[in-house]
């Protein structure tokens, strides 16, 4: 069977909620659904005009102002090359790995998830 790549996502696993069945749902959940797991980077904040949101996001990520500005530049450069797509999608695995190693290596639980769709 042949597959089309739907890209790579940087995801922070979430813990199973109390109301979820322990026999069905694992303790740690990975999902490309943004309502279930946190995705990185949050492009809407980076491309937004709110400096307050950017400051909060920089603090949430634990990045210095200089590193955060480098992150923004990196995203913009790789958007132009097509390696980063909206929203929060990396077109190639190497770009996703480089981003994690350069900006999010202090988040040990972050995972790279690749999505593939069957060609019909």
Structural class: alpha+beta
Please compute the radius of gyration using only Cα atoms.
16 Å
Q: Terminal Cα separation, in Å?
A: 9 Å
Relative strand content = 15-25%
Could you tell me the mean pLDDT?
89
Unreliable residue runs: none
Helix content: 25-40%
Give, in spatial order, the strands making up the sheet with the most strands: 4-1-7
**What is the ordering of alpha helices and beta strands?**
EEEEHHHEEHE
User: Number of helical segments?
Assistant: 4
Shape: globular
Find the count of extended strands (DSSP E, 2+ residues): 7
Give an overview of the whole structure.
It is a single chain. With 120 residues, this protein is an alpha+beta fold. It is 36% helix and 24% strand. It is built from four helices and seven strands; from the N terminus they run E-E-E-E-H-H-H-E-E-H-E. The longest helix is centred in the middle third of the chain and has 17 residues, at 65-81. The radius of gyration is 16 Å and the shape is globular. The N and C termini lie close together (9 Å). 12% of the residues are buried.
């Amino acid at each position: 069977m042949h597959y089309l790549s739907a890209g790579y996502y940087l995801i922070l696993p979430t813990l199973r909620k109390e109301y979820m069945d322990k026999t069905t749902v694992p303790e740690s959940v990975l999902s490309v659904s943004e309502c279930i797991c946190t995705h990185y980077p949050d492009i809407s904040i980076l491309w937004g005009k709110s400096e307050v949101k950017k400051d909060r996001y920089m603090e949430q990520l634990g990045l210095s102002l200089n590193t955060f500005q480098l992150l923004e530049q990196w995203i913009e450069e790789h958007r132009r090359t097509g390696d980063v797509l909206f929203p929060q999608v990396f077109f190639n695995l190497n770009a996703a790995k480089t981003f994690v190693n350069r900006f999010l290596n202090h988040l040990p639980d972050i995972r790279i998830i690749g999505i593939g769709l069957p060609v019909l």
